[in-house]
Amino acid sequence: MPIDKERIEKAVREILLAIGEDPNREGLKDTPKRVAKMYEEVLSGYSDSPDNHMVLFSEKYDEMIIVRDIPIYSMCEHHMLPFFGKAHVAYIPNEDKVTGLSKIARIVDVYAKRLQLQERMTEQIATAIMEKLNAKGVMVIIEAQHLCMVMRGVKKPGSYTVTSAVKGIMRNEPTRMEALFLIKGRL
């Protein structure tokens, strides 16, 4: 679904008027276009799919693969304010199939670049990797700071929300503990 930049520009102009600003003043006259272009970029996940990034390679490997500290930038669907942090993704391949490491980061981006709830995004990433790779198990952990909690409302800077989704054999306690140990980097 392509983003309707013209419609966004009109809406931003209306917001400027609604808050008592002059959308024609020098500093604001190009703001509607800039905001529309920004939304097209930061919400590009609506026109993307994990299928576009899931490249499989034949490799005889059945141990855990982890890509950790993947930067995420998303937009809270409740206030349309950013939240940002890190995603950690672990999976155990099945049937001698692995995917490129950069593909894991791209799948994270597909879901991050949408209006989101962190909980939903965590589950979407885990489900996509589990299904597309037919993995034996997947664990996704996201740690993020939400500007809706930092700059408005409760105003708690420095607070992080941590969510997880655990699937398949990653639910077994020894495997889960290994993944957590490796994700936290205590080797």
List keywords for this structure.
five-stranded mixed beta sheet; 187 residues; alpha+beta; 37% helix; two-stranded antiparallel sheet; 7 strands; 6 helices
What does this structure look like?
The protein has 187 residues and is α+β, with helices and mostly antiparallel strands. 37% of the residues lie in helices and 26% in strands. The protein has helices at residues 5-18, 31-42, 101-112, 118-133, 147-150, 173-183, and strands at residues 56-58, 65-76, 82-92, 97-99, 115-116, 137-146, 161-168. Strands 5-2-3-6-7 form a five-stranded mixed β-sheet, with helices on both faces. Strands 1-4 form a two-stranded antiparallel sheet. A hairpin with a 5-residue loop joins β2 (65-76) and β3 (82-92). α1 packs across α2 (31-42). It is elongated, with a radius of gyration of 19 Å. The N and C termini lie far apart (44 Å).
Shape: elongated
Average pLDDT: 95
Write down the Rg.
19 Å
Which structural class matches the secondary elements?
alpha+beta
Report the biggest beta sheet as strand number plus sense, adding barrel if it closes. 5 strands, mixed
| Spatial ordering of strands, largest sheet | 5-2-3-6-7
How far apart the termini lie comes to: 44 Å
Annotation, overall tally of beta strands: 7
Q: Segments where pLDDT lies below 50 for 5+ residues?
A: none
Helix content: 25-40%
**Would you list the SSEs in sequence order as H and E?**
HHEEEEHEHEHEH
